[in-house]
Amino acid sequence: MTKIAKIEYFRVPPRWLFVKITDEDGHFGWGEASLEGHTQAVEGCLEAWAEKFIGFEADDIEHLWQVSYRGGFYRGGPVLMSALAGIDIALWDLKARKLNVPIYQLLGGKVRDKLRVYAWIGGDRPSDVEVQANARKSQGFNAVKMNGTEDLGWLDSPNRLSACVERVKAVKALGLDAGVDFHGRVHKPMAKQLVAKLAPLDPLFIEEPLLSENIGGIKDIAARTSCPIALGERLHSRWDVRPFLEAGCVDILQPDISHVGGISEMRRIAAMAETYDVALAPHCPLGPIALAANVQVDAVSANFVIQEMSLGIHYNVGGQDLTSYTTNPEVWKVTDGYIDLMTGPGLGIEVDEEQVRRLSKDAKAWVSPMFSGPGKELREW
Fold this sequence. Notes:
Elements: E1 4-12, E2 16-23, E3 28-32, H1 39-52, H2 61-70, H3 78-99, H4 103-106, E4 114-121, H5 129-139, E5 143-147, H6 162-172, E6 177-181, H7 188-198, E7 205-207, H8 215-224, E8 229-231, H9 238-247, E9 252-253, H10 263-275, E10 279-280, H11 288-300, E11 307-308, E12 338-340, H12 353-360, E13 371-372, E14 378-379
Parallel strand pairs: 4-5, 4-11, 5-6, 6-7, 7-8, 8-9, 9-10
Antiparallel strand pairs: 1-2, 2-3, 4-12, 13-14
């Protein structure tokens, strides 16, 4: 066992935050602590922890997780859990690389050799979905996800929902499965109507029909429809997830490994969901390190069903994409809707450190979009 010698973090375009941990013997691992729109807050947390954890045993991943989570009195939430995720993923990568095995071998071993994946189409204000869906089909995908609507008022014209129905019809006509993300921007008076309109089209899932803060409303919608309800990107620990499982209002859980404290907590959440017969479909519109970390948990989780990929997502601008920052981007090749399980040590990807350090210089923090209504009132993004 060797002690942690250095913890570094790198803000890189388009909107990601990478973490590197090095031990006294020169072993290293990479993690991802990306929290869209809140980069500086996570960096502040990492700065404090970078000093605190020097000298800790790098192999003691669970001890470091517990110290990070419980040791500061205040706990949970997106900022702390995203910072913790970066450290946790890096420690798993370091340990598995040192042992020359994939991380999934340290989690009990794989239960599958390939994983079903999906990609985004349509953008924040969905359009051109038929063209984009055909492009995804040519890339090897057989499932996609799109935003259901543009921004909506709390009570908007029912006519604004019809366009969503037509987009889903167009994608389904191409033989693709389609998940529809309400993105929390559809409030209850409209969400009830839209779910009912979509049900005959058999969407793959309805994502975040309401914001997760409104568990009563989600439970009500779940009781009204046969559409699978997916959510979880704004739940940051097993304690956040628990009431949704107990309420029976989620069918597909979508925790984000960069927001829930990393591989350690994602594995626990996946096991919790399995006991409720709830499927696992991790949220990941982020970078290659986060996706590789998800794959390690997907590989060992019996209830895994499909993995989000950020390849070509509308937020990846400026030349950087999922295939950036690594020297083996071929691991993300999609064939018949699946990617093969990586077999390399650690996360299974090789980070291009020179590119990370070069592009992190003067990198700007990504700013979340904000939508406004006709009266300049703030609407949900």
